[in-house]
Amino acid sequence: MVDWHPLKRWLFTTNHKDVGVLYLVTSLYFFVAAGILALTFRTQLAVPSNTFLQPDEYNQAVTTHGLLMLLWVLTPLGAAFANYFVPIQIGARDMAFPRLNALSYWVYLASGLLALSSFFAGGGTADWGWTTYAPLNTVEFSPAVGGSMMGLALMLLMASSIVSTVNFLVTIFRLRAPGMSLMKLPLFTWGWIFTSLLMLWAFPAFVSALSLLVADRAFGTVFFTSTQGGPLLWDHMFWFFGHPEVYVLLLPGFAITGDLISTFSRRPLYAKKLIIPCLAIASILSFTVWAHHMFMTGISQSLLEAFNITTELISIPFAIIVLAYILTLRGGSIRFTTPMLFAVGSLGLFIIGGITGVFNSSVALDTAFRGTFWVVGHFHYTIVGGGLTGLFGGLYYWFPKITGRMYNERLGKIHFAFYIVGFNLLYFPMQLLYDMPRRIFTYDPGTGWGPINLLITIGAFTFGGSQLIMFANLLWSSRRGPTADRDPWGAYSLEWGVPSPPPEFNFPEGVPVISATGVTYRPVSMANGGHKEAHEAESYEAESHEEHWSHWPIVVAAGAGIALWGVLMGLPALLFGTVVLAAAFTGWGRETLRGRFAEPIEAVGEKWPFERLENLPLGMWIFIFGEIAFFGTLFGAYAFLRMNSPLTDFVWPRPGEVHNISLGGFNTILLLTSGLTMVFALTFARRGSYVGLQGSLVATFSLGAFFMVNKALEWKELFAGGFTFGTSTASSIYYVLTGVHGAHVVAGLVALIYLMVKAVKAHSTTQASGAVEVFGIYWGMVDAVWIFLFPLLYLL
Amino acid sequence: MFDEAKYVAVYGILMLGLIVELLIGIGRSPFGALSGAAILAIAALQAVFIFLVFMHGRYGARPVAVFAVISLVTVVPLFIALLYSVVMPHHGSLP
Q1: pLDDT at A599
Q2: What average pLDDT does the segment B85-94 reach?
């Protein structure tokens, strides 16, 4: 596609299609790693009293398999297709923030390598199960440093996903081609909108939970070892993320299944206008069902009933979508190509997963099934059946578009046959093991579980081995397969109207314009209705991807990965990583200041409902909404600890007893005043007053720095007075809340330095006003968080 | 000067809120059991003011406001469940 040295292309690319391929290859690599781990523990369970694995090795294998498959395989595999195809499906030339897109990928890779390296950190990796339940996740029960490393890797991965989410939402809402209304988007893009929204609000909650966990493990706080917090706090925080995460895993594959059924039935998707609201309802409801994972924790009976009802409710939108898929098939002219086989297979498997899920929503039945292999069978039918199988259908479907070559259809069908037989041999017998606990590394011959487990293990090897057929087929076909046409399937979405593989900016014939009669391509100036300046139109035509490569994303990710590794493995690595990270951010900023990196020029198209917001402010607002979930969950943890303290005979410090109210109040004045100077900076920037702008930025920086100095002195004084990280839950939550807020202030101060330099280098202050506005939104969020922190920590 | 005057006025309101918070926090007696709720209500109003300043009517407030409300509403069930699971009687261990 681009005539670069391959190393430069794959290391420094910011093109959405290259990034998509990187995601694809990397997620499949993690798929193999996680699959091998699964085969090891299935070998262990194949026969009773087996000694193939030691208990601790078994625990590590199961934990890492779960975490890798869910977070480093399934979500990124969806992201691979989204990266490659969402911009094309909406008629855009690239993502809204291509360099940030590359950064998301490299941070994802760094987090995965950090997770895998935790095996070699001494004492092995995390061994607490993928749910990371307290108190198993505490140092007392899992002392290995590898566990903490896994926690940091998860935080890094979440950061990558949240950045990616912001990018996708801005791209889809702001870069659609003329005529591409939201309702015309293919189901996959719709699925990715809801996946992104779920990630935006669920992943920050997990970052909150991990912050508390890592603080417990690395700094000695007492969130999950105290009676005020303990297992129940972890359960709530984890599953508030964990259940929406199920839909993050499911929706991309499930949406692809819909598009495949429509394409290969040669019919429009039945009731698409109903499917989209159903996806929305399911996404909203997914935030109200998490405590069905906690029916056995002893929480109030009325709370159980509420979650029982919401869990049953969520099955309704999915039932409607399944019916719509089936009605699309009915009367269609069906072609059973490999992608279609995977789509239909996915639908069938998901129905089984859905039905067994309804069993689990019942408090009574869940009491019997909880913690047994029944549950393992259920969620694999849902996530692997509904999610991964659909994604594999997508892999075959889009393979000709990505590589420009057809795969071998016969081998594809053989793969499907072994896949579906292996899958059912592997997971269906688990539904019969409703009396076998899922968290044991071996069992006694007298239990009678041996024959079924042997069958399951045979299924596992059949299922795992079937993937070799796919890899062989796709690898061979990518080099030797017959050349693919633009549209080998007779499909309807925009990616099938461009060459295979697509050229660097996707639409060589011009801007796609979508109307009731179909798609036409026009030169950019015409597509914009003549409003765009002529020279800009020329730039659009002449633009080259060469202008957009950047080597900073990979350096930032490397710096972050090394620094986090160093947090646990030693100061030299931490310092080195920090220096690399600082240098990378400096380089990133200089690149922007020099105009070395420019975002691709996009034609003016559909932007509803964000016509009046530019890309950057919208991106910042979306990021802020994620921050609401992050701090909201932390505030929730605070409320939980505080409410629990009288019930556990812990006396929470009275106002003024530990914290200096005057100092807290003074800090509040500093921060609020910095908010005022920040809006002044924006006003001066727009008005063209250079002195006013620089003065306001310097004032904001000074006030923020003063705030941080006060905070540091306050910490020092509290420590000297014996109020340390682990003194009590009151001290733990104080340090975590003020620590993460302080980290936000420091990040803001760094950004302020950048803004001051930008103001110096900009030709006019109005040129800098966009960046000032975006930073102002961020600084307002930092102010707003402190507005709550001050009363919670000092006055109540 | 209109913008500056507007922002100084908002700043004044935020400061006033802070003073009232401090007064309630230090001398709780007039509000009694409601003092905590009153302080948090003032904090919430202050946050809304900050939010409005940075929206400053330029974007078409509706989409951003809708997004903000959804974000807040998303974490509300967590708060309810967290508090409920503390204060309501536990059902005890099941078999």
Answers
A1: 62
A2: 70
| Whole-prediction pTM | 0.94
Q: Domain segments of chain A: what residues?
A: 651-795
Angle among Cα A49, A384, A413 to the nearest 5 degrees reads 105
Contacts of B70 in chain A (CB under 8 A): 625
The domain ranges of chain B are 2-87
ipTM: 0.90
Contact B21 A672 (CB under 8 A): no
- Which residues have C-beta within 8 Å of that of residue A387, sequence separation ≥ 6? A74, A249, A250, A252, A253, A254
Contacts of B27 in chain A (CB under 8 A): none
What torsion do the CA atoms of A178, A184, A187, A189 make, to the nearest 10 degrees?
A: 20
Question: In terms of CA atoms, which chain B residue is nearest residue A772?
Answer: B54
Contacts of A632 in chain B (CB under 8 A): 71-72, 74-75, 78-79
Q: Give how far B72 is from chain A: nearest CA, Å.
A: 7
Backbone dihedral angles phi then psi of residue A21, each to the nearest 5 degrees: -65, -40
**Which of these ranges, A7-11, A22-26, A157-161, A787-791, has the smallest mean pLDDT?**
A7-11
CB of A328 closer than 8 Å to CB of A306 = no
CB nearest to A302's CB, from B7, B43, B88: B88
Partner-chain residue, chosen from B22, B75, B91, that has the shortest CB–CB distance to A301: B91
pLDDT tens for A510-566 read 889 999 888 998 876 544 444 444 445 555 555 555 567 899 999 999 999 999 999
Q: At A519, give phi and psi (nearest 5°).
A: -110, 130
**pLDDT band at residue A788, thresholds of 50, 70 and 90?**
very high
Could you count the other beta carbons within 10 Å of the beta carbon of residue A288?
A: 23
Residues of B in contact with A626 (CB under 8 A): 71
* CB contact (8 A) between residue A669 and residue B46: no
Q: Is the peptide bond before A135 cis (omega within 30 degrees of 0)?
A: yes
User: Which CATH class, in words, describes the domain spanning A651-795?
Assistant: mainly alpha
